[in-house]
Amino acid sequence: MNLVRGALPYFMIPFLISLVLVPVCKRVGFRLGIYAVENKRTVHHGRIVRMGGVAIYMAFLLSLSILWKADDKLNGILIGGAIVFLGGFLDDIYDLPPKIKLLFQVAGAVTALVAGNLGLDNIHIFSLEIDNPVIVKGISFLWLIGVTNAINLIDGLDGLSSGICSIVTATIGLLGFFMGRRDICVISLCLVGSILGFLPYNFHPASIFVGDCGAQFMGFTIAALSLLGFKTTALITLGLPILVLFIPISDTLIAILRRKLKGQKIMEADRGHLHHVLMFKMKLGHKRTVIVLYIVTALFASSAILTYFNPKAGMIMILILLLISDIFIEYTGMINPKWHPILSVWNKLFGWPKMAEGEDPVDTVILMEEEKEKEKKDSSAESN
Fold first, then answer.
1. Parallel, antiparallel, or unpaired for β 128-130 and 123-125?
2. One domain, residues 214 and 130
3. pTM of whole model > 0.90?
């Protein structure tokens, strides 16, 4: 009870600030015309402001300034996060080219690594240890950039990125508590409170979007927090954060591989992401897709916590989750409809399931549905 009472201010203050600021951001966004643009990948309709990230960012900063005294590392995270936030905010207004957005991310990552002296001390993968400072700093840099973009990529449905980030951040804070890191607990609670104050407005049907500024800021801060707190994780460096961030990281890696195999540019957007597969191919709908991804994120987060206390039991849970994930990826053709090594063996033994061949089944299903909808509208317009 004392623990909850002590943690409550670090959560409630940013939560209330964010809850109050979101309606203000909506009004400002409408006046400035900062709306989400509808295109072939979006699933929303109408004019929806994409300034929710401003409320999250302001609530996080204000609460930390009240509740916590910053050191060099936190200042590095805050300054780097401010640069990333600024790049995302300008993108929300002007739709910046990908290279310019990446430039802001690089500047933010370098600032956190240099000014805040953030980063890993060494890298170990089981018995292999790497302590070369260039390699270690390079991995830390790629981690910051990669997680920032991974969170931004899953920001495709109402409440998806903000809900997943709240689960991830809460898990990092909990692991920080187990490791005796009060700074990680406080920063995590402030970020979780800021995000959850925004989430009621963002859950389906959303009245405001987090925007690139919010998604990139959340991703960058989560990546920085994991560098701050998990340098001594056993077995694999950053192993626990990778588990907690399984959904955004795996979805990003699969998207890169899928686009490479199809001859597309890596930065070229498509509708083959995990949330598209669940929503369209599996026909779960908007809200159920988001809830399913919350549950999967919570399961991987639980495996990270279990691994911290009991590595053997945690490893069993991880292997089960990874096997289920692989079967899902093969069955839905997320990488390629012809890639299904495990299910091919199962099919030869039992004659099930029948795997689709040919074009990417996800994009094909979506395009067919869109074409049918277009034909219906055209026919109704002609009859009128």
1. antiparallel
2. yes
3. no
